[in-house]
Write a structure and sequence with these properties.
282 residues; mainly alpha; 9 helices; 2 strands; disordered N terminus; disordered C terminus
């Protein structure tokens, strides 16, 4: 006689990714961004699109997000089978606890950013909306809004918090992992943000890591990222009533896309059921 024995399932939301995978996925993701970006530039240039056209910048930014998400999904499955949505933190959090933590992290970020801005007399204006053409035709402006406040929060959170931080956390715990992730998160914005803004971006990146750690879910970090980007984009474009509308709409859209992505990723591969001799059997 034999009886099936099912091994303990792989932990969900705390995937045992090797820390070195974080660096490998980062290099691979940005390597793919460069290769795909060059392809986009070559095709667009052949079609007569100027290299400095807003549509070109939108396309390249979209390619970066797709490449990072692809790298996270690919390397997350190395050695442990297909990953589950919960491995990336795509699982429902406790609502009111998460709301409180979102507000606390956001407030801490705003206080530290204000202190930094006062310390260095920061008065530079970010140029990303203008580079993307957000002040151009309506269709172009809508594309920038979707890119900055929906796609970027989803893609960057899945990679940096869901995978990069998740892998580094298995090395020396969440605090060092949050600091390193924040450093890298700020670093990738070199060129798209004035140098003075890099420190606040690092603080924001580290704060999002801690928000993920404390809530156990990526949804609060996606929401906060979308809210913050909405305010920053609206302020740079001198919008007024459009900002709260964008905050609500973009956050809802980002969370909906995250839920759809979680469904697409699924529950991953469960450990197979094996047979073992029953006690006392021959």
């Amino acid at each position: 006689m034999t009886s099936p024995v099912e091994p303990a399932p792989r932990p969900r939301g705390r995937a045992a990714w090797a820390p070195w995978l974080a660096g490998v996925a980062f290099v691979a993701g940005f390597g793919a961004t460069i290769v795909l970006g060059l392809f986009v530039i070559i095709v667009a240039t052949a079609a007569g699109v100027p290299e400095d056209a807003p549509g070109m910048n939108i396309g390249l930014t979209l390619v970066q997000n797709v490449a990072l998400v692809g790298a996270a999904l690919f390397f997350a499955g190395m050695g442990s089978g297909r990953p589950a949505a919960a491995d990336f933190g795509l699982r429902r959090p406790r609502f009111w606890v998460s709301v409180g933590l979102v507000l606390a992290v956001w407030l801490g970020f705003l206080i530290l950013s204000a202190a930094w801005a006062a310390l260095v007399s920061l008065d530079q204006q970010q140029e990303l909306p203008e580079e993307l053409g957000a002040d151009g035709p309506l269709l172009n402006a809508l594309a920038v809004v979707v890119l900055v406040t929906v796609i970027a929060p989803l893609g960057e959170e899945l990679f940096f918090r869901g995978f990069f931080f998740g892998a580094l956390r298995n090395w020396h715990g969440p605090w060092l992992a949050a600091a390193l992730t924040g450093l890298v998160f700020g670093g990738i914005h070199v060129g798209s943000s004035p140098l003075g803004y890099l420190v606040p971006l690092m603080i924001f990146g580290a704060g999002l890591c801690l928000l993920y750690e404390w809530t156990g879910s990526l949804y609060p970090t996606i929401a906060l990222h979308a809210l913050n980007n909405s305010i920053a984009l609206g302020a740079n474009l001198d919008w007024d009533w459009q900002i709260p509308v964008m905050m609500v709409g973009s956050t809802a859209a980002a969370l909906l896309c995250a839920a759809l992505l979680a469904r697409a990723i699924g529950d991953g591969e469960r450990p197979p059921v094996t047979s073992a001799p029953a006690p006392g059997s021959a």
